[in-house]
Amino acid sequence: MSVLIGGGTGFVGRHLSKMLREKGHRVIVVSRTAGKEKLTWDDVKKNGLPSGCTAVVNLAGRLILEPFKRLDEKYLKELHDSRIDTSKLLVSAITSANVPPKVFVTISGVGYYPPSPTATYTEDGVNGSDWLAKLAKEWEAAGVLPEHVTTRRVIVRSGVVLGADGGMIKTLLPVPAAVYLPMLQLGSGKQWFPWIHVKDIAGIITHAIEKEHMKGVLNGVAPHAINNKDFTEAFNKAFKKMSYGPMFVPAFTLNMVYGSEMAKIVLEGQKVVPERTLEAGYEYFYPSINDSMKEISAKF
Ligand SMILES: NC(=O)c1ccc[n+]([C@@H]2O[C@H](COP(=O)([O-])OP(=O)(O)OC[C@H]3O[C@@H](n4cnc5c(N)ncnc54)[C@H](OP(=O)(O)O)[C@@H]3O)[C@@H](O)[C@H]2O)c1
């Protein structure tokens, strides 16, 4: 396959590119900047898909959870445009291709579902009503292909992606010395923490590309649902930190750092299960949080 990956320079994109190349596929990345084996979004807008392109993936999107970043209009627009405009551009390129690619995979997030302490969401779960849920809905809708286009469409709704070289862990451990600090539970710690190892989010996208029967939504989460307290314990155990059992980061601190709308992302959570992902025959590299954190901590 010849796979075009929008936003392929990022954390998930680098792991996906590596996995695809190891399996013998060709990868071309679409980025805001030009470079080797890279196209810019302008190149795609002007010239369409590169010839021979058989799969398209969109991972582009401005980082959502940033400390001390307020959800003002400018930031919301960036979060929106980096996802929706890139998806629409790829839809347009796929629609006008002489030979349409076999498959179009887009990523979105489990923020699609409303946070709840009691509900369990399969891929058929309801859409929430907060800004994150609305963004996810619009993001997914932006990737809809016209009916006459034969390309398969797969949406992967990702949980928090865990890996040593990007995403949440890199934000938590920005400098090597941070490895020595213990992780504290956030708020009550009872909120669900939908997570996935980076090798598995790359694996699910690869599975979606390669398996011709796959279409529709796949939850990109690990099969073992955990809460924030479970994650904190697994993290501290893997990094061999002392247990700070009763200590936690209070909600008001997180509200101060992230603003109340953003802090909700870590203070509330969804129990998400990968029902269709498992039915589709995907086999996880890291189904358990302890194995996942062990692999990650070994890299520090
Ligand atoms: N990591 C997670 O925990 C997680 C969870 C759920 C969903 N997701 C989604 O999965 C996708 C990939 O995540 P990731 O962790 O790999 O993110 P990442 O490391 O931040 O990479 C995303 C890529 O998007 C491109 N990008 C950033 N800002 C952009 C903008 N304003 N306009 C156009 N492109 C822009 C960048 O590519 P260039 O600089 O080359 O243009 C960047 O490499 C994102 O859409 C993210 O929202 C991630």
Written description of the protein model:
- With 300 residues, the chain is of the alpha/beta class.
- The protein has helices at residues 11-22, 41-47, 73-95, 131-142, 167-172, 198-210, 228-238, 251-258, 260-267, 275-279, 289-297, and strands at residues 2-6, 26-31, 38-40, 55-58, 103-109, 120-121, 152-158, 160-162, 185-186, 195-197, 216-220, 248-249, 271-272.
- Strands 3-2-1-4-5-7-11 form a 7-stranded parallel beta sheet, sandwiched between helices. A two-stranded parallel sheet has the order 6-13. A two-stranded parallel sheet has the order 8-10.
- It is globular and about 60 Å long.
- The mean pLDDT is 93.
- Residues 249-295 form the DUF1731 domain.
- Residues 3-211 form the NAD-dependent epimerase/dehydratase domain.
- This is Epimerase family protein SDR39U1.
Ligands (ions, cofactors included): NADP nicotinamide-adenine-dinucleotide phosphate
Q: Which bin fits the share of residues in helices? A: 25-40%
Q: In order across it, which strands form the biggest sheet?
A: 3-2-1-4-5-7-11
CATH uppermost class: Alpha Beta
Strand content: 15-25%
